[in-house]
Amino acid sequence: MTDISGLRFIAIFPDIPIDGKFILRDLPGSGKRIDVLCRSLAACFDWSSSLEIRSKLEFMVSLSHSILLRFKAPTDATLRGETWWATIVRDSLRNTPPDFVTVEERGLEELLQILQKEESNIFVLEEEGRPLAAISKTPSASPYSFMLGNHRGFDEGTSKIIQKLDIQRVSLGQRSYLGSHCVAAVISHFERIKK
Fold first, then answer.
1. DSSP notation for 78-132
2. How far apart, in whole angstroms, are the C-alpha atoms of residue 19 and residue 184?
3. Where are the domains of the chain?
4. For residue 145, with 0-12 CB atoms within 10 Å meaning exposed, 13-18 middle and 19 or more buried, which class applies?
5. By the 8 A CB rule, do 49 and 6 touch?
6. What integer is the mean pLDDT of 37-55?
7. Hey, what CATH class is 7-194 in?
8. What are the two backbone dihedrals, phi and then psi, of residue 100, each rounded to the nearest 5 degrees?
9. 119-176 tens-digit pLDDT
């Protein structure tokens, strides 16, 4: 059995408007594919079956490489969905975040450097990486952090930061998956090995 201190996802969305001005009925267009982010948030906090693991989850979003949103699990266990999460993102960007979200002015590179100083378990989800099972065999006192891109992968700036900081790559397999499915697969993997 492998115990974990936590799972963290770091999603990179360089195009989502940081002013919170997007239309809830048009998340892909006006929100510059914020629907992809909202599905990943739902996968993280709504889809996981275990309340125990849900309390160990954190989801970070880097927007325009300048704003960082940190999400913890909401206290209620209600399934919420995409539009609800979009409302939470919008309100957070408009300076009225709920108690489970914090907003920081922090660039992606600075965030990753801080996390590297605190822990050594930061990975990029990429098809050509080492198998996920290879890195999760031993217990860790530090959270496992997994970086994922938007619907197009990583932009050039993010790719340069990943290379500069020499962040290891791990894989869920040879296929490319939606971000939400990557989140669900990682959580499911850690739920299985905990049993």
1. ----HHHHHHHHHHHHTT---TTEEEEE--HHHHHHHHHHH-S-EEEEEEEEEEH
2. 29
3. 7-194
4. buried
5. no
6. 84
7. alpha beta
8. -100, 10
9. 768 999 999 999 998 887 666 778 899 999 888 889 999 999 999 999 999 999 988 8
- Say which residue, 31 or 14, is predicted with more confidence: 14
173-188 pLDDT, tens digit each: 988 899 999 999 999 9
CB-based contacts of 105: which residues, under 8 Å, 6+ apart? 66, 67, 68
Write the pLDDT tens digit of every residue in 95-105: 999 999 999 99
Could you tell me which residues come within 8 angstroms of residue 84 by beta carbon, excluding any fewer than 6 positions away?
A: none
- Closest to 108 in 3D by CA, of 59, 157, 73: 157
Token code pair at residue 131? 């198998």
Taking the C-alpha atoms of residue 91 and residue 85, their distance in angstroms, rounded to an integer, is 10
Q: What is the DSSP string of 132-174?
A: HHHHSSS-BSSPEEEEE-BTTB--HHHHHHHHHTT-EEEES-S
Cα angle value 127/128/134 (rounded, 5°): 90
Q: 88: which 2 tokens?
A: 């939470």
What is the Cα–Cα distance from 65 to 158, expressed in whole angstroms? 8
Q: Which residue has the tokens 């080492």?
A: 130
In angstroms, the CA 178 to CA 10 distance is: 15
